Amino acid sequence: MASYVVLEPAKNGKPRIKITVELGYDEETGKRIRKYKTVTLTSLSDRAIKKAITEFEITVSKMDIEQIIESITFADFRQRWMDNYVRLDLSPATKSHYLRILNTGTFEKFDDMRMKKIKKFHIVEYFSNEKKEGRKNLSNKFSILKSIFAKAVEWEIINENPMSGIKAPHVEPRKKELEFYDAQQLSQMLEAINNLNLKYRVIYKLACLVGLRESEITALRLEKINFVNNTILIDQALKYDTEGKSELILGPTKNKKSRIVAVPEKFMEEIKEQVHAQKKLKIKSGNAWKPMKDEDGKDIDFLVTSQIVLGYPILPSSLGSTWHRHAKKLGLPKLNFHALRHSCASYLLSNDANFKIIQEQLGHSDVGLTMNTYSHLTKEDKRAAIELFNKIL
């Protein structure tokens, strides 16, 4: 907001005004922030005064932006990066992941530094100290810093990216043996779960016979199931958004792509039973049915729902504990829930399914990921193949 007062004429007799632009209050002192300028005009006409005020307001606005750019600290810019990029453009899972890392005081070393003063050496030294202290998540921290400084360049806060040319910290990959049920164990498992409630039989078979992730199973809606072609459209995943209302929401799949998965015909009959069971339960529950709503306020009909809040989806992370309890009760080998998905891939490979088919069924971003994940499962097949040369030796 701007105002002006008329001053005594200049020595040459031309009229003068003093313009005041209000910029709010200083957060620390509580005092008003004002900018002043004395302007000599050719006349005191409304047009001349308005033009002078507008020009000064533009000048002050530019000064304010330049001052922000010059003085902005890493902590201040990180918050703007979060508000103007992460919260608007990234998935709930990524937002939650970033927040978990940032909320541990990860980048306190940089917080009070001006963005323009942070150099390559500061970043190299930071990761060197992190490695010496044996701290974790170095790759994730590197990715976050890379994103922050990339946006700082894009938004013209800094001219050069201090992350440019710096190699990501080398982290020894965790060597974890891939766990899965072999063909015999898978057969035993499928027989054992016949003693469970229909809903849980369907959940576990969606993992080991179709290769779905927890978040995809819990996001399945009835209208996505095609009983004519025995297929299911996997177009969304259930995510837990830790920001705002801290609620479950439907978001994109892990690789942000939709896919159609094939379902064994016999298993499709059980899915059809579960669909009918859900519809009956909805009618029977009446006002106790509390479903998730879509953007238009309509009920979302999930294939499997919570027993606690009828009609509401199941928390994806709860499938692991439920599976652990059932596996123990049924005397099955101890494997985590995700291992059921690995069992699906293992069975397909052992029966000569090619990697491309497995990639599409499991929803991997590319076939290379599928091959890197499951190639070691085919060692026996490779050994058998190479023994064929014995016939011509």
TrEMBL record:
<dbReference type="GO" id="GO:0006310">
    <property type="term" value="P:DNA recombination"/>
</dbReference>
<dbReference type="InterPro" id="IPR010998">
    <property type="entry name" value="Integrase_recombinase_N"/>
</dbReference>
<dbReference type="Pfam" id="PF00589">
    <property type="entry name" value="Phage_integrase"/>
</dbReference>
<dbReference type="Pfam" id="PF14659">
    <property type="entry name" value="Phage_int_SAM_3"/>
</dbReference>
<comment type="similarity">
    <text>Belongs to the 'phage' integrase family.</text>
</comment>
<dbReference type="InterPro" id="IPR050090">
    <property type="entry name" value="Tyrosine_recombinase_XerCD"/>
</dbReference>
<keyword id="KW-0229">DNA integration</keyword>
<keyword id="KW-0238">DNA-binding</keyword>
<keyword id="KW-0233">DNA recombination</keyword>
<dbReference type="GO" id="GO:0015074">
    <property type="term" value="P:DNA integration"/>
</dbReference>
<dbReference type="GO" id="GO:0003677">
    <property type="term" value="F:DNA binding"/>
</dbReference>
<dbReference type="InterPro" id="IPR004107">
    <property type="entry name" value="Integrase_SAM-like_N"/>
</dbReference>
<dbReference type="InterPro" id="IPR011010">
    <property type="entry name" value="DNA_brk_join_enz"/>
</dbReference>
<protein>
    <submittedName>
        <fullName>Integrase family protein</fullName>
    </submittedName>
</protein>
<feature type="domain" description="Tyr recombinase">
    <location>
        <begin position="176"/>
        <end position="387"/>
    </location>
</feature>
<dbReference type="InterPro" id="IPR002104">
    <property type="entry name" value="Integrase_catalytic"/>
</dbReference>
<dbReference type="InterPro" id="IPR013762">
    <property type="entry name" value="Integrase-like_cat_sf"/>
</dbReference>
